[in-house]
Amino acid sequence: MSGKVNILSDHVSADRRMALMRFLLIALIALFSAGLLQAGQNKPKKHDLRREIFDLEDAWRNAALKSDTTAMSALLADDYMAITASGMLQTKQEALANMRAQRMHLTVLTLLDRKVRFYGTTALVTSLAEVQGTNAEGDISGSFRYTRVYVRDSQGRWKIVSFESSKLRPNFEHKKDSGPSGE
């Protein structure tokens, strides 16, 4: 009788081993297939991503020149925070309110020496802006260096989450725009 128990016990162990082997084989096939599918998907190339960001920078420029609050609202993340050239903090709501009230009027906004760096779903833009315009305090014309941070949201759209600008001294020399392929 004890021999039958051992035979039955060995038989069950063999069935369990076969089931485990089948499970492992299916799991390996699934992992291999997932890897092939992922490798076959077209990931955006760095150049394409850079072009996307440059297009958004141009959309931001146009919205700023036209005081287009609808376009600007679409570009800014809800938790957007800026540090203006005067050192003031500005939320999305404050930026849009200032734009609606036309507290700043830009006549020229030329973007030069643009560079984009990527860190996962974050894009960091640095640029030189040549500005002609006025605000409540008077003339704001001059050269400004700025940093703008974009983050790709859960729907795959780039949103501006942060901005900071600094006015340059009048004798500052700048480089030519590096364009979308420049680094």
Secondary-structure-derived class: alpha+beta
Helical content class: 40-55%
Kindly estimate the percentage of residues that lie in beta strands according to DSSP: 25-35%
Q: From N to C, what is the helix and strand string? A: HHHEEHEEEEE
Per the CATH scheme, the topology name of the largest domain is: Nuclear Transport Factor 2, Chain: A
- How does the major sheet shape up? 7 strands, mixed
- The number of domains: 2
DSSP, total strands: 7
Q: Give the overall form.
A: elongated
CATH class of the largest domain: Alpha Beta
Query: Which runs of at least 5 residues are low in confidence (pLDDT < 50)?
Result: none
* CATH architecture assignment name of the largest domain: Roll
Q: Let me know the average pLDDT.
A: 83
SS summary, helix count: 4
**First and last CA, distance:** 81 Å
**Rg, nearest Å:** 28 Å
